[in-house]
Amino acid sequence: MFSHCVTKRRSLYCGLNILRVVYFGSHHAPLQMKNVYCGSVGAMLALLILLASTVSAQTTVSGTVTDAASGETLPGVNVLAQNTTVGATTNLDGVYTISLPASAGTLVFSFVGYRTREIDVPSGATTLDVQLREDILGLDEVVVSGLASSIARSNLANSVETITARELAGISTNQTLDGALNGKITGAVVTSYTGAPGGGLSIKLRGITTINGSAQPLFILDGAIISNAAIQNGVNAVTAAAAAGNPAQQDQPVNRLADLTPDDIETIEILKGPSAAAIYGARASNGVVIITTKRGRPGTGVQFNVAQSLGFATISNRLGVRQFTAATAEEQFGEAGLELFNQAGGRVIDYEDELYGHVGRLSTTRISAAGGNVSTTFYVSGVIKDDEGIVERTGYEKQSGRVNISHRFSNRASVDVSTNYIHSIARRGLTGNDNTGTTFGVSLAATPGFIDLRPDANGVYPDHPFNPSNPLQVRDLADIDETTNRFIGSTRFTFNVLQQDNQTLQAIGEAGLDYFGLDQSSVFPRGLQFYQGQDLPGQTIQGRTTNLSTNLRGFLVHSLNLPNSNLFFSTQGGFTYFSQDLDRNTAVASGLLSGQTNVDQAASLQTDQFQLFQDDRALFAQEEINWASRIIGTVGVRTERSSLNGDVDKYYTYPKASVAINLTNFDFWNVSAVDLLKLRFAFGQTGNTAPFGSRYTTFGSATIDGNLGITINDSRGQADIEPERATEIEGGVDLNLFDGRASFELTVYRKVVDDLVLLRQLPPSSGFATETINAGQLTNKGIEVGLNLIPVQSDNFQWVSRTSFWANDAEISELDVPSFTALGGGFGSTLGVIRIEEGMSPTQIVGIDDRDGEGAADGIDYVLGDAAPDFQMSFFNDFTFWDNLSLTVFGHWKAGGDVINLSELLLDLFGTSADYDANAGDRLALLGVSATPFVQDASYFKLREVGLYYRVPARFLGSAIGSRVRNLRVGVSATNLLTITPYKSYDPEVHNFGDTPVASGVEVLPFPSSRSVLFHLSFGL
Q1: Cβ count within 10 A of residue 864
Q2: How many other CB atoms are there within 10 angstroms of residue 996's CB atom?
Q3: For the chain, how far is it from start to end, CA to CA, in angstroms?
Q4: In angstroms, what is the C-alpha Rg of the chain?
């Protein structure tokens, strides 16, 4: 800044120029000054003039901030002199003191969960007490607007979803974070891989954005980019689920988002489309989920909180079992069936209850402490979770610890550190698709109630007479465990390079690390029935996966208020770096010695290794201009390169632009009932890199004349593969009414994804079977509506209602390859498959049908349904009585969306479906003729969460318990309490093929979903 000042000439002019630079910003100063030389005297004089004028104009104002409803003081409230950077924070007693510059006559009071207030300071006043009202509808919350900045929701030009701590963990205790999100994200389709303990959900934001690429949103936890990988455990070696060559996930794995603890989270912000997520670049095509955990607040002292939840889980829906007679037993199972039926002597065993009827005990213990002073704040928590599944010997255990520390070295420098360690064990049993008759579901389908598969007094299990496997034997003797150790850490360092009344310049550095080690161990002892007659009975499957993700980000953020112009500029720019190294090793040992589990105790050993490396670098810049909160415009750009692209040195550019117009802030507006009427428009582009390895032609091994050799695999690499590019245009209107009693949000969007990454078949003469290319275009159009109301608000009763509606329509607008079945899209058109076809929905289900009425398939595949829903709605209602008793009800309605129900088909084929004698004949008669019976409407209404809580009034705590207890809360809650659906299986939102981009509509006898009831006790010290 002072580089133009030299000592050859003393000049007051240079000192005044320095004053101009300091006051207005360096960009107002000329870059070159001819014949002007400055001395230290001039510079010192200018700085003294500025300092003297600033000191003489200051006024000290103090006061107390309280809750408008209860009158309680509020510690930790931020107090800011408007249009300046001068601020203060209320202490433990809610008291603040601030030196108010002459240029600022208005104080802005803001606090998380409360409405922001702007109050003019009367001339000559030194005391100002303030009351804040709770921001029940979240109208004044601050949300992300860039990589290093945030903005008031009232000025936001994009649709950004915010989920609060209360919505995540305040109603009930969900087993995992992804489960807590289900139904709460407007614009999302959430489906479950399985109902097994430990979670496993797929989240897709604003429709289908890829066919073969990654369908995962970008997850950021306190600045650290984290993995949500779903790693298969290798039990396909037993089930042969992928024996037909389908490479899609069929082991129903845990996804790593389940590791996070919902109670530790303050907010989750979801950037659903490219117009909001463009600044995050080529990993944000599927949206960005920004998770912020809790931190201590200055001036609050040290506060301890203890919470305990105890409850139980049961199967949420039973299919029932067939009631056999002697005649039907013989008809279905022959003479052996009749003989066993007669031996049973009328005894009937309900094997659905025997297998899935376990009442799982649930327990979650949580302890946290938070607090701090002006310099240092902290948040520390520990969680112990022990949840049993509805199948014996299944469950999910987790121990988690978090330490968040923020330290302010001075008015210029501060650091925020977040650390989280997780240890978890998931025991998920053996369910899902199966070609060997070994999984629980397939074995159960083949099991009539008149046979006895229970062990005798010596613990010996009888052989299943009609199936290769006894499901009770597998449940009790096989071990299928997954153990995870994970560490997530991040650091944010902020340095105020320049801090004046009208401008600041911050330098920000962030570093994040995510490491997990996943140990998967499955042991199937040689005594299991399905090994009979095999040459190498007994198997152990040992897997070890490590993942290390690191990211670095550096920013410069400049904020400038131009005096007397009502213009505010926020400029940011910087760089980002991301690296991922994933290494998965799996060993399948067969011919295991009795009682042994080590792979070296087997006769045969097969190993497999998969490695993934990714290295991304990017530069970005963004400019935001705010004119008196009337018109807010933002432009930004990110340019990025990735090691996954064909040309690793090529940079791809992703721009964004948006504008918000607050009509209510213009002078002509005079409708008092309308607090906010905002129009907003946004444009943005993001990318989605090709799957790892697409640019390479890989090698395989082979034995040639007894010698180990190298062969070329049948998929050819594409040296010029490029990332998919999503372009979105979004428009909307926001409306707030009646002094915060109502808000309405409407958003419409159109998202076009170009350069789809697809597989192309090659002629045999090429020497390859397929290659990966960029070919095709995908279009999504959608609408999102939100209505928030406080219909009743009185001294004794308050009702808060939130209703959301969203719908998306997708189409393959261009396809440069022939139509094909989506990865994991089903098992053939006889049963129905999800087919990718130009001009059609990417989730359409096609199959054979008897359209000419001749009782036979006519060789044509017809559209039979669509896996995508027609629309979805969520309903959140919170009732509070006398400020102490609260009832919260959260419901979710999905209309439309079909599923290929192969569970019912298998039950019919084995003759055990509950309605077999009444309806199965008609269904089976269409097998090979029409796939229509298997494509079923999976609409549903779910009462996802209900919570009833009582907070003991503070006036009773001191006399009954002691003054050290701040609060005491007891309650009861339930999850998945009610499901209404026409779908004829365990759960309409469970599917078979894991986190595949498109195929979310195929079900094969999954681990059933559960219903839970929990009792809660929490108190604070």
Answers
A1: 22
A2: 23
A3: 51
A4: 32
Q: Report whether pLDDT(61) > 50.
A: yes
Residues 87 and 226 in one domain: no
Which CATH number belongs to the domain containing residue 519 in this structure?
2.40.170.20
- CA dist 942 and 975 (Å) reads 9
Nearest to 928 by CA among 833, 994, 829, 1002: 829
> Nearest CA to 868 among 812, 830, 816?
812
pLDDT by residue (tens digit) across 798-835? Answer: 999 999 999 999 999 999 999 998 888 888 999 999 99
Instruction: Tell me, yes or no, whether 684 and 770 share the same domain.
Output: yes
Q: What is the pLDDT of residues 940-991, one digit of tens each?
A: 999 999 999 999 887 777 665 656 788 899 999 999 999 999 999 999 987 7
Q: Residues 596, 676: one domain? A: yes
For residue 24, tell me if it sits in a domain: yes
Question: Rounded distance, CA 968 to CA 953, Å?
Answer: 8
The crossing angle, in degrees rounded to 10, of helices 12-24 and 40-57 is: 50
Three-state SS annotation for 509-576? EEEEEEEEEEEEEEEECCCCHHHCCCCCCCEEEEEEEEEEEEEEEEEEEEEEEECCCCEEEEEEEEEE
Residue 318 to residue 987: CA distance in whole angstroms: 10
pLDDT of residue 735: 95
Length of the chain: 1021
Place of tokens 């008793």: 885
Helix, strand or coil, per DSSP, at residue 1009: coil
CA distance linking residue 237 with residue 588, whole number of Å: 7
Query: Maximum CA pair distance of the chain?
Result: 116
Residues 65 and 38 in one domain: no
CA atoms within 13 A of residue 191's CA, in its CB half-sphere: 32
Neighbours of 448 (CB within 10 A): 25
For residue 597, give the nearest of 509, 477, 769 by alpha carbon.
477
Amino acid at 258: A
Which string of DSSP letters, residue by residue, matches 594-640? TT--SGGGEEEEEEEEEEEEEEEEEEEEEEEEEETTTEEEEEEEEEE
Query: Locate tokens 């994933």: which residue?
Result: 582
pTM (two decimals): 0.88
- Name the residue type at position 1007: F
Q: What are phi and psi of 701, to 5 degrees?
A: -105, 155
Nearest Cα to Cα of residue 389 among 447, 421, 431, 348: 431
Mean pLDDT over 661-678 rounds to: 94
Number of domains comprising the chain: 3
Q: End of a domain among 108, 135, 162?
A: 135
User: In whole angstroms, what is the distance from residue 648 CA to residue 719 CA?
Assistant: 10
Task: Kindly state the DSSP code that residue 766 receives in the 8-state scheme.
Answer: G
3-class state of residue 322 by DSSP: coil
